[in-house]
Amino acid sequence: MTNYRKIENGYEIADLMRVMRGDPDPWHSVTFPVKGMVYLRSVSDCGIYVGGLSVGADDMAAVLGAVQLAPQLGHEHDPEANGRREAAGKEALTVTDSMVRARLLDAVDGWSALIADPKRVIERTEEGTLCIAPDGMTCRLLVVRCPSTARIYALRVPAHFTRVADARRWVMQNQSPEVET
What are phi and psi of 52, to 5 degrees? Predict the structure, then answer.
């Protein structure tokens, strides 16, 4: 018996412990719905990994929703692809874990629809970009780059902010990283 078999867009992998116990269905489905995402399913459980990060139970529905909304592989250049990216990006912004949110935005190509539109940008500085969130969201988005890892994050901030510096101070709770406390 091999421990894997090919399915439509992934594999089924045998759980060898379940095989040893005599389980009649020891298979886990492993699919790759978008680049950088792994979706594991078994009869009794499932797990999602985006960019190598495990998705918590509270965020699974949002992650799966964003993936379903995103343009599917091979259809990234279809006429409705940008609208799908924006919808997927909006759904990705509901993920509570900021690391998973950023990697999901990468996976569904949601960044371009969210921050590339000049009508959404309120202010762009070296410290980041403050954007109007997609319709239906009651916040603004502060898009920043981590100085040590160069990772880009979309942080939700209150809607009253009009300046990047003010939004960054709010995120950092009015503490500058350059000032010792």
Answer: 85, -5
| Six-digit token string for 117 | 């539109």
- The dihedral built from the CA positions of residue 147, 153, 154 and 156, taken in this order, carries a sign that is negative
Q: 99-124: per-residue pLDDT in tens?
A: 898 889 888 888 776 777 788 899 99
pTM: 0.67
Q: Tell me which residue of 14, 19, 50 sits closest to 32, measured CA to CA.
A: 50
Distance CA(176)–CA(27), nearest Å, equals 51
**How far apart (Å, rounded) are the C-alpha atoms in residues 131 and 93?**
13
How do strand 128-132 and strand 139-145 relate by DSSP bridges? antiparallel
One DSSP character per residue, 83-140 reads: HHHHHHHHHHTT-S-HHHHHHHHHHTTHHHHHHS-TTTEEEEETTEEEEEPPTT--EE
**Can you tell me the mean pLDDT for 82-107?**
87
* Contact call for residues 26 and 19 (beta carbons, < 8 A): yes
- What pLDDT, on a 0 to 100 scale, did the predictor assign at position 78? 83
Q: Which of 11-15, 57-61, 176-180 has the lowest mean pLDDT?
A: 176-180
CB 135 within 8 A of CB 119: no
- In the chain, the amino acid numbered 119 is K
